[in-house]
Amino acid sequence: MTDPKGMWSAKGEAVLYNGKNLTGPGLWKTRALPLQYAQLQKLAFASDDQTRAEFAADVFTPTFFRGSLQIDEAGGPADTYVKTEGWGKGVLWVNGYNLGRYWEAEGPQHALYLPAPLLKAGANELILLELDAPKAAGSRTLEFDIKPDFSGKPAPTCNGAVAKAGDQLQMYTCSSALMASQQWDFDSSGRIVLASTAAHATDGALAARAADAGLCVSIGPKKDPTYGFPLAQIEPCSSDASQQLAHTTDANHFIRNAAKDVCLDVSNHDKAEGAPVGFYHCTAASGNEMFTVQDTPTHHVQLVVKETGKCVTVC
């Protein structure tokens, strides 16, 4: 398996760090860590109190953890799976055997197979190298299960937090729980305003408001990391109007920015929860650029993607 990582040398194009050119011989060295069990046994592990203090720090650094699994003499060992829920990314050893790598944010496995022959009655040593930070201090535990977990990459969630300038537009299932993140208004100038951020009259129509009130759908400046087109995000409605003006008069229900000649677009026909929404050149009859402007009981609208039936969401 080809699985390259890191920077092996400064050959080729310049490598910059905080604007400083690091290119050149001798400016850094790459060293492999074999991580043989004999090396791990020589590690000086801190006390639990010291470990707690490390977790309280703002910055987490790669850390080795050691624990013990007690198995009764009567029952003896059996095949099991070690669950890595709550951890980040790293490697696990049991009694000197490397069980493999885990990466909770990506999967596909979230439990490492531990066959019975690697275990013994009595105390069993577990050593874990954590490269990212566990989710919480209370996550410094490992659980065991009788079944595997190949649930894959966890589905993204949107918690409906209060929107702020710079938040990106994504596609999520339309839900009343996300009302504040999924309901919009078109103001008189053609901008798309997140309804929860604008001043409204009691009937729900846009009230007269200062030019800088509310957050409007804007083109960029962030870009899709894979395809490079500008992402859709919300910015103060007082921002550059050419980045915000849109209309839906096209027969195909495009949401088009005429100044830039681009349309609102779900990235690469992605149908998954959390799919990024950006602006791309308008493509005739492309389902990921076609939207239904759907009225709601609150007299605001949802922007529903015709290809999936899901809603444009600030998250």
Your description of this structure?
This protein has 315 residues and is mostly beta strands. It folds into two domains: 37-145, Jelly Rolls, CATH 2.60.120; 169-201 and 212-314, Trefoil (Acidic Fibroblast Growth Factor, subunit A) (Trefoil), CATH 2.80.10.50. 6% of the residues lie in helices and 31% in strands. It has three helices and 20 strands. It has helices at residues 37-41, 48-56, 179-182, and strands spanning 16-17, 20-21, 63-71, 80-83, 89-94, 97-103, 111-114, 122-130, 143-145, 169-172, 184-186, 192-194, 215-223, 230-236, 256-257, 262-266, 275-280, 291-295, 301-305, 311-314. It has a five-stranded antiparallel beta sheet, with no helix packed on it. Strands 3-8-5-6 form a four-stranded antiparallel beta sheet, with no helix packed on it. A three-stranded antiparallel beta sheet has the order 7-4-9, with no helix packed on it. Strand 16 and strand 17 (275-280) form a beta hairpin.
